[in-house]
Amino acid sequence: MVMVSGFTLIKPLMKVSGFQQKKQGQGVETWPNGYIYKGEFKNSVWSGIGTLTFPDGSTYEGEWANGFMNGQGTFTWSDGKQKTGIWKNGKLQE
Could you tell me the pTM of the whole model? Predict the structure, then answer.
């Protein structure tokens, strides 16, 4: 594994474009405020399947596109309550 500015590369799939490194493939991104994303990256953006853990322990596990919850997924609050469904641009479609 390789650590780059809070991003841990699980598989060595990081590509270099000019002087800017792009997060590509499976990885883990962490922030000092407690957010943790584990999943797929495309061009340094959350895309594919992944899990975001919030500082309070809540999680979203499912599909991502363009850095937002997009597609099938489940949000679980820290108290254990869950909402499963189709998400679009970070919002549950009800």
Answer: 0.77
Interval 6-59: pLDDT, tens: 544 444 444 444 545 778 888 888 888 889 999 999 888 889 999 999 999 999
CATH topology of domain 2-13+26-92: 2.20.110
Helix (H, G, I), strand (E, B) or coil at 49: strand
Strand ranges in the chain using DSSP code E only, listed in sequence order: 2-4, 7-9, 15-17, 20-22, 25-30, 36-42, 45-53, 59-65, 68-76, 82-88, 91-92
Please, are residues 58 and 78 in contact by the beta-carbon 8 Å criterion?
yes
Q: What are the residue boundaries of the structural domains of the chain, listed by start?
A: 2-13+26-92
